[in-house]
Every structure is written in C-alpha cells, then in structure tokens.
C-alpha cells in the first residue's frame, strides 16, 4: 500500500503546508516524563491554521516508553484538543509489524464514510 505523505516544515521561514484534503497526522512526542513541550512547535504552527485543523481526521503517535505516562503524549493531546481519534501508538521508529498495522488500519479507517466530514 502506498500512502502519500507531506513533511510539516521544521522552520517558520519555510513555505507553509496547507492540507488540501482530509489527513491523519503522525507525530513524535518530545519532552520526557513531565510532558512539557511534548508537541513539536512546527506541529503547533501547522494546526494553528484552521484550514489544516478542519481537515484533520485522526492522529498516530510515536513515542518512547521511557517517558512513562508521557508516552505518545503529543498524539494524545492533539487528538483530545481536535476531537479526533488516536488511531495508533508505536515505540521509537516502529517495527515492520507497526508499519503493517498502520497501513491496514488506515485502509480500514478511510473506508468509513464519516471520515470525509465537511
């Protein structure tokens, strides 16, 4: 399965990305156990634009279980704040099994008619 992907610009001076269609956000958690600064700043900038927030349909989180209760905290925060489902979490870079799970899960997720809300 081929999945289109776009990298959110790391620096504010780079051209902004505007979502043209519904998407699922995959993001890491930064910041360790206390959870401060867990959401990458470029993701915060990206989601400040209502055009991007309006197209967000779900979140997938990457994290480190050494963060304890902050494991995949960024994904949990974004999912809760934007009222979208947290679809999957994986450790560090993930495994081939994680890749297969995400691909299968996204294929099923996008088949649901409610995922293309206006």
TrEMBL record:
The GO molecular function terms of this record are: FMN binding
Spell out the SUPFAM superfamilies in the cross-references: Flavoproteins (SSF52218)
Q: Which residues form the signal peptide?
A: none
Top-rank taxon of the source lineage equals Bacteria
Q: Which InterPro entries does the entry mention? A: Flavoprotein-like_sf, RNR_NrdI
Cited PANTHER family: PROTEIN NRDI
Question: What's this protein's name?
Answer: Protein involved in ribonucleotide reduction
Organism field: Zhihengliuella flava
Which lineage? Bacteria, Bacillati, Actinomycetota, Actinomycetes, Micrococcales
